[in-house]
User: Fold this.
Amino acid sequence: MTKERLYLYDTTLRDGQQTQGVQFSTVEKQTIAQTLDELGIDYIEGGWPGANPTDSAFFDAAPKTRATMTAFGMTKRAGMSAENDDVLAAVMNAGTGAVCLVGKTHEFHVTTALGITLDENRDNIAKSISHIVKNGREALFDAEHFFDGFKSNPEYALSCLKAALDAGARWVVLCDTNGGTLPYDVYRITAEVVAAGIPGDQLGIHTHNDTENAVAGSLAAVDAGARQVQGTLNGLGERCGNANLIAIIPTLLLKEPYASTLETGICAEALKSLTMASRQLDEILNRVPTKQAAYVGASAFAHKAGLHASAILKDPTTYEHIPPEAIGNTRIIPMSNQAGLSNLRRRLAEAGLDVQRDDPALSRILAEIKDREDHGYTYDSAQASFELLARRELGLLPEFFEVKRYKVTVERRKNKYDKMASLSEAVVVVKVDGEKKLSVSESMDGHGSDRGPVNALAKALAKDLGPFQDAIDDMRLVDFKVRITQGGTEAVTRVIIDSEDGKGRRWSTVGVSPNIVDASFEALLDAINWKLLRDA
Amino acid sequence: MTKERLYLYDTTLRDGQQTQGVQFSTVEKQTIAQTLDELGIDYIEGGWPGANPTDSAFFDAAPKTRATMTAFGMTKRAGMSAENDDVLAAVMNAGTGAVCLVGKTHEFHVTTALGITLDENRDNIAKSISHIVKNGREALFDAEHFFDGFKSNPEYALSCLKAALDAGARWVVLCDTNGGTLPYDVYRITAEVVAAGIPGDQLGIHTHNDTENAVAGSLAAVDAGARQVQGTLNGLGERCGNANLIAIIPTLLLKEPYASTLETGICAEALKSLTMASRQLDEILNRVPTKQAAYVGASAFAHKAGLHASAILKDPTTYEHIPPEAIGNTRIIPMSNQAGLSNLRRRLAEAGLDVQRDDPALSRILAEIKDREDHGYTYDSAQASFELLARRELGLLPEFFEVKRYKVTVERRKNKYDKMASLSEAVVVVKVDGEKKLSVSESMDGHGSDRGPVNALAKALAKDLGPFQDAIDDMRLVDFKVRITQGGTEAVTRVIIDSEDGKGRRWSTVGVSPNIVDASFEALLDAINWKLLRDA
Assistant:
């Protein structure tokens, strides 16, 4: 059976930039465009040339892509020709292979927002599209508020689509601009549009996530015959965001009825870079990736429930609808209060510890974890601390050094320029190989990012560990998470530290105490001990 | 027209706790249960009694609710009677009004995971449900992997549902356990189940978000006749989470075809607390609320695009599918324009500050807030710090005292019993009424809950403020939240402190610095100044 071609249109660089707090630089736009192109997206909407300086700069230096680079704009204004509309001229001047213009199809918006007649508006659409086509570009028409417009005046909304197609548009795109249309209505109205003679292979869908249904709405339109899907990476976009291509793409490629009936520009090999593409965008935006994101989240294949975890060990298809490898993600079996022994053995194996099913150490480890979790510890993400705990119970943890005492001071007072400034100082006394070593370190305002007591302690602790110094020289603290939690009957502070080393390893450790400095120090000690285990 | 009743079933406390990194304390469970009850949820699934200690402790001290408190468990095991199954006995012993048992309906899972015959499994379902009903409780049956099971053997899957209903179950719930079923299949299969004679008003739906379609899947089942929806607050849950009730509820109450045909236990007034309920859960989990969350996100009604913003000012329905007030959310228009200023005036009025529309201080306050937010501050919840900032700009903030310097030390070493113990000591120098005052305070391990440097500082600072001493004697620090966030181009620590006084007031303040001690001190100072404003 020949598959029908479905086209993917990404608007991360344009609609995605409407997100509160998001403003891409030109270089960032170039990076994202390259990732989209390597993934196999068909159209890359790069921005609105003329509307803001970075958009224009991006088109001037747009990377050469296999994908069709597309400039966004709006249909010409009334009372002037397409040739004389300077806003449209700026869009054309970007020189892209395709141009996508948004225009109105909802009579309420034509009369209220534009204040022109319905005929004038339709004429603006037709003339604008003709102008694009005459200039040898591919033309797309984004029909703003189409679903609301169709509900209030279907004849008029349809006549606008027809006007665009008659003028030579390659695509007309049904936009649910305010995000209020539910999937069933998207399906019903798209089907009526197809039944009215608009060919599905010229019909696109553009949804927003205001009811958390943008992905479902896109699929509903595809079910009804639309063959272009518009969306953004990670669902970036104004208000609640656009349809999330990162969630739509694997559904189209891996799941029925789509996998066996439709074809996209994305191959199975490229699909494996999807998780990376999602995280790259978060990195550019300096966002913590959403753990629970569909398909690509760090928790998407994490099995916490004891019953699920033991079934997964027998056969992953018991609780996984697709294999995580297909989209470049990985399976996680975390420890928790509810985890069983099989879960524990699996986790130990991941740490390189093969423990027999009947080893009594298993239940000791489990009891120790439960007890510590009751006191505020968490081992779901702190795999390195988990490994140390297990090794201690198994008698497999050497004592590299012993901390005899430490002291940390934070002092805030006026400096010589008569401004308040802080100085943190830490002293740590350790015993290594029978020898006592005393280290001191300080950090102060305005000297890089390491200005607090925890960093002073970390620096002092790492300063002189004798024979182990080489092994820890390349490690650094990359993240530090603090929360107040319940430890037994009292509030305690839980600190999770993420560390990294020159070999590209990244590991997490946990510390808990009523005293934030002690909790941090405990997590630091675990981080160093784990590193020494690997390299000393 | 009489509306059909649709029931809402929340499993935040059970399935929600399957989220990686989530472990509720008993007190947190009680708080969440009360919020759910006030909202008007019909069923609150509190946990699996016997499976872990906090779940059992919660049922022992469960709040009295209008909602039906429900205990979760699994159908009895083969080879023993329901009466003799100790796992089931622990569930029954929780004494809840309803009991929900999960059981298998997918032949592959019966034979592979359980290793029993199909008849044995169906018999286990029937006997378990009978056991619940005989004991005078309402019985629910969660049909695990129902959709996959129905696809592979529809007769068997249906026969399990019928066995549960024949045994007296009030509800049978179709669970898409691995989250892989797309909305259209949920609709089709639910419709077939109804057509096969399972009454819609005894049929529930339980979806997961692995393809970002959990909300749409729930709505599809309702479209096909199901009249119970299971989900969690904020879509908490294993892997990618459960269906998000926070997104489903407003769609059911505010949007067609649901609003005019279905009735839930949630009234229009309670719906206004939805945003608060969502943020409360994030606060308990120490999570940053998702700005783009449907309906309740801080960006859900934020209009960044210039064209949208100006249309919104003419008529909000141009770009909003529902009014934000309906769910207790607020519209955000870029700070620079008129709407931003009227928002600010409302917030000032809440702090008792009536500022005229044309007061130039308004734009100074706005600029100051924006600048501080760029540096990591947040004033969403820290209303007391917001008030102090505004008063400073308005010239309405007296200087009660001045901090000249401070110093805090944490020392950890062996005590006289040869055990490691910590001592925190703080020295604070303030100038009050022209007089310099030097206070010192210490806190140590094992002496109440105040054992860290921040508490030592708080005690020292509050120790001697001369004429203001009376006013602050009854205040205490009740919560302390720390987060690493972005401040300009660098990572900074943000501390939010909640304080309380003898008059029952509770207020929040914020401090930001690369140094956690400095950030804490800043928030402490705000807390004390706010208290002095009220009482000095």
